[in-house]
Amino acid sequence: MGLLKNSLLLQGQLRQAMAQAAAAAASAGVGRRGVATSTEEYMRRNYANNVSEYNTVIGSLIQQRRPYLLRDAYDDMLLDGVQPVRDTFHNLIVGTMKGSRLQDAFYFRDQMREMGLQPDVNLYNFLISTCGKCKNSDAAILLLEEMKAHGVKLKGETYICLLNALAATGRTDQVYAIVRDMTAAGLGLNKFCYAGLITAFKNKTPASEDTPAKILEFVQQSKGWQYVERVANDSAENIMMNVSDEELYNLPTAEFAHRRGFIFKQLTIYHVAIHACADLGSKETLEALLDMFTKENFNYDAFIVMQAVRCYLRCGDIDSAVKMFEEFSSSKPTPAELYVTLAEGAMIGYTPRGMEVAQATLERMTERKFFLNPKMGTDLLLAASGEKTGGYTTANYIWDMLQTRNIIPALPAVEAYYKGLKEREIPSDDPRLVNVARVLDNLQLRLGPRRNFQ
User: Fold this and answer.
1) Rounded to whole angstroms, how far apart are CA atoms 339 and 275?
2) How far apart are CA 319 and CA 356, in angstroms?
3) What are the two backbone dihedrals, phi and then psi, of residue 296, each rounded to the nearest 5 degrees?
């Protein structure tokens, strides 16, 4: 952790110093850092000295969810004259996958080749998965062609990565082509393949009228799924890299896969199917799935309840959503995300009943000693700030919850909240308005001009 701390504290200073040193070395034709700093100064600023220490820093940045610093760490590594090894590139590309940074992933792939290291099948799996996360199926197809050109043998995981990467953009024809390739290779379909088929139809544009029927059909078919060719070492590197199957295949449960008790992994196909119902707003399909689920004597996990609640609320059925929440919370530990899902979804349309449910849910959440993190707080504040009538009670309550924990939500949420306050008859010297204006000014000053990102 000491290495990571130094990395983060000295990042800006170190990058500037190394850039100056590199420029000086290039013009003078001498060593990279020796002319720029004394030995003592170099040791004070440097945060890693060899490939093992740099690998530790890279691993720490990935664990801390700071993939945007990986390029900086890699550049510093080269400036230090430290030669990356295969494990270094595997760590870097896994980090870009987790952070959905496709451009960086291909940059590291190219750097790896320049150093005489050919990507192996596991690395291609991570790259294809990154394409899926970034919804770039064309790049995934190019990687497939690249693998074939370099004689890299595909394995079961590769086909499933491809299937789910293509599913992310709704390319059903190509998804079926991957299924045919798997069959030709003597591989059976497993639950992750059926999950990809469901996702492909959910994401298909224009939307297909038979999507609800397809979802139910694939769930039924999945009950007889067979294991794809998988031996123990197939997933050994994924385990070592702390990459779950859910994350590798871009399932909606990916961010919860490492949380004990949040999801029951044997319910993967229901997770994906019910999540699709919520995205599509198909209450009829949801209830057909829940009926199938009940007949199989399964128990709901938190993720299924979250998605069912989200579907009901998107369809305007607040009572069914509340009932589902109450039945689950009365018998099982209820995570904060489920409270947030109910509160946020209840605010859709800003009906009196919905705002009442949202407020009551947040108050209950506070009583249970649950706290909002920055992401939850941002999402809730952004939703509540759209209320055009009423006393702005829910938005104010969320702001106060965050202030109590010294949490500053993201700029768009603060802007929306400030705009909502200004639209109401509030004196210019009102303490709340003054406080929000100050936070907004600080965020704008720190973040600079707004930019549009895709």
Assistant:
1) 17
2) 12
3) -90, 5
Cβ neighbours for 212, distance < 8 A, ≥ 6 positions apart: 280, 282, 284, 285
Cis ω for the linkage preceding 252 (within 30 of 0):
no
Q: What is the pLDDT of residue 31?
A: 38
pLDDT of residue 223: 84
pLDDT in tens, 63-112: 998 999 999 999 999 999 999 999 999 999 999 999 999 999 999 999 99
- pLDDT value at position 287? 97
SS3 annotation, 326-388: HHHHCCCCCCHHHHHHHHHHHCHHHCHHHHHHHHHHHHHHHHCCCCCCHHHHHHHHHHHCCCC
- Is the pLDDT at 236 greater than 90, yes or no? no
The reported pTM is 0.85
pLDDT tens readout for residues 200-221: 999 999 988 999 999 999 999 9
**How large is the angle between the packed helices 374-384 and 393-404, nearest 10 degrees?**
160
Cβ 90 vs Cβ 237: under 8 Å? yes
Output the pLDDT for position 41.
58
In this structure, the dihedral spanned by the alpha carbons of residues 178, 179, 180 and 185, taken in order and rounded to 10 degrees, is 90
Tell me how far the alpha carbon of residue 130 is from its chain's centroid.
11
CA dist list (Å): 26 to 43, 45, 417, 420: 22, 21, 51, 55
